[in-house]
Each structure stands twice: as C-alpha cells, then as structure tokens.
Amino acid sequence: MQLMYITSCYWLFHCVIMADNNTTAADGGSSSSLQQVNDRIIIVQVMNAIFIYIICLLIFTFFKKDTFLSNTRYIFFAHTLLADCLYLIMTNNLLLLTYFSVTMPAAVCVFFCVLLCELTFVTPLTLTAMSLERYVAICMPLRHGELSTVRRAIHCILLIHSISAIQPIIIVSIFFASVPLGFYTQYKLCSAEMFIAHKWQRHLRSVIGQLYFLVMSITIVFTYVRIFAVAKEASENKKSLSKCRKTVILHAIQLFLCLIQLWCPFIEAAILPINLKLYNNVRFFDYIVFILAPRCLCPLVYGLRDEKFFLAIKYYVFFGLNKNISPILVDNLITGHMKT
Questions:
Q1: How far apart are the first and last CA of the chain?
Q2: I need a labelling partner for 316 at 20 to 30 A (CA). Which of 24, 90, 101, 162 fits?
Q3: Cβ distance 62 to 80 under 8 Å?
Q4: Residue 255 in contact with residue 128, Cβ under 8 Å?
C-alpha cells in the first residue's frame, strides 16, 4: 500500500476503515477487528451528531439577532460555523458511503471532492482573518470602525473562498487533462486519491499545502505577539485586553490543530512500514484530534464562552419558556454589551 503525501481530510478515516476491513478478511473474519471498525463508526456518528446540533443552534442564534449580523467578528464566526457544519455533514456522508461500499458516478465524486478540498482551507483561513480583526481592534483601535465593516467582511469571505479554491482548481484541471471523458460515467468509491494521475501531482499538492501552512502560521504568530505586546504596555481596559488575548490564544490553538492535519500524512508514512495496526490507530487518532476537534472547538469554546452569544443561546435552548429571560431583556442586554 502506498501512502499519498497529502490526503483529503475525510480520506484519513476512510483508509482506516478499508484497511481494517482488509485485515479482517485476511485473518479469516476476525470479529475483534470488525468490532473495532464498528465502534469507530459509532463514535464518529455520536460526535458528529452532537457537534452538528450545537453548530446549528449557534447558526440559528446568529441569524435571529440583527445585532450579530452587523458585527464583523460575528460574521466571521458564523461563516466558520456554516463551513464546519457543511464539512462535517459531507465527510460523514462520504464516510458512511465508503463503509457500506456504495459507489457513485465519478463526475459526482469530483464535485464533492472539490468542495471538500476547498472547505478544508476555509476554516483555518477564516480563523486567520478573525485573528487579524482582533489585531486591528487592539493595535489599531482608531481605524477599527473604518476597517471592520460588514462590506469588508463579505469581501474578505469571498477572498477566503477564492484562496481556498486554488488547490482544488489546480489539481482538478490537471486531472481533467489526464483522463478520458468515459471516466466520469464510471461508478466508483469516492475518494480524493482518484485525482492523482501523475506522481508529481502529490508533490505539487504537498507544496501548496505547506505554503498555506507557512503563511497562516506566520500571520497568527504576528498577531499573537503584537497583541500581547500592546496588552503588556496598556494600563487601561485590562479586562478587555485580557479577553482579546484569550480569544487570539484560542484561535491559535484551533488553527494549530487545523494545520497539523497537513503534516499527518508524513508521520503516517513513517509508521506504515513498521506496523499496520499502529498505522490504522494513528490515522483514527489524527481524524479525531486534527480534523473533528478543531471544527468542534470553535462552537464549544469560542461561541459558548462569548457573553452575548451565550445570553441569546440560553433563551433559545429553553424555547423562550424561561420566564426570567424575556426576548426584550435579551435584546437590551446584547445591545448594551455591543455598545460597551
């Protein structure tokens, strides 16, 4: 078995399933190996269900309050939620299709893989934009109102998707030029590896991925250092600065986890020749820690720890039945928080 240098995120866990199934067959149908695959499927389904529910609740809260719709930080936050929700749903569906060996036309698979490849980079790029927004708010407070507008936020989101689409456009363009038209009508198990027609494409994909890694890492380190320097020198509004520092740290942790997935294939390539079982376990670990966890950290920590969002969520979780939390009170408190 040959390991690709950089793989599509959802393919990490797909390979675990397929490899475990092959191992099961070679061992004469070992029940323990099959049970391990089933247990992993159940774990992923439970985690996805919980996180998708929380994300959907946060998205609903965002669109119900006009105050959030006019704030750049919350627009970026909602964009991350939407991208992560779509990503989790699509990867989970493709995971189940692979588990049950359901094939699809290659043309449909191309569409899904291109979209997933783009969504892979949308979250870390949006987190980078959110860190830059916090940098402007703290280090350039006089220009924050001018730079952080709804219009600029929308333009930034369009730019994020354009940058995220660079890699899939290059890979798919090469793929289109390499395969006959009849390929697109064939039914196949959907995976990103079908796009690799030449060996050098793997190296090209690796170079592009590492370039993303380098640029985003430099950006987050720059904002992190600058914000801490300003916070150290400031003598007023230390509570606000402390909160912004924690926000940037959170962005750094989440972005770090997102970017580590670009290095996972290199680690797995070193383990594969040594021990196949360890290789499968490492790939499952990588999927949980570096693919699912970063996309769940944002709604679980960043969204719920925000006073304004938590206040609104608290109202909707109880479906407005809590008499101590009226919609007018929620609106007034959120508006008051925004002004401060």
A1: 58
A2: 90
A3: no
A4: yes
Phi, psi of 178 (to 5 degrees): -110, -20
What does the pLDDT average to over 298-308?
71
Cα–Cα distance, 255 to 76 (Å, whole number): 14
Q: What is d(CA 241, CA 249) in angstroms, rounded to the nearest whole number?
A: 12
Backbone angles phi, psi at 104, to 5 degrees: -145, 160
For tokens 């004469």, the residue is 28
Q: Is 273 exposed, middle or buried (0-12, 13-18, 19+ CB in 10 A)?
A: exposed
Distance CA 25, CA 340 (A): 63
Residue with tokens 């490492």: 282
What does the alpha-carbon distance between residue 254 and residue 296 come to, in Å, rounded to a whole number?
9
Alpha-carbon gap, residue 267 to 82, rounded angstroms: 30
The model's pLDDT over 207-217, given as tens digits with 9 standing for 90+, comes to 787 788 788 88
Q: Which residues contact 94 (CB under 8 A, 6 or more apart)?
A: 10, 14, 112, 116, 190
Bridge partners, residue 188, by sequence: 104
**Residue 264 to residue 84: CA distance in whole angstroms:** 20
With residues binned 3-state (H G I as helix, E B as strand, rest as coil), the percentages for the chain, rounded to 5, are 80, 0, 15
Q: What gap in Å lies between CA 126 and CA 79, rounded to an integer?
A: 8
Q: Is 105 helix (H, G, I), strand (E, B) or coil?
A: strand
Q: How far apart are CA 100 and CA 26, in angstroms?
A: 19
pLDDT tens for 143-176 read 888 888 899 999 999 999 999 998 888 888 888 8
Nearest to 309 by CA among 74, 52, 55, 135: 74
Residue whose C-alpha is closest to residue 138's, from 64, 187, 87, 73: 73
pLDDT at 162: 94
**What confidence score (pLDDT) does residue 25 get?**
44
- Given this model, what pLDDT does residue 21 score? 47
Q: Helices 199-233 and 238-260: crossing angle, nearest 10°?
A: 170
Convert the pLDDT of each residue in 177-188 to its tens digit: 888 888 888 888
Residue that the structure tokens 């407005």 belong to: 320
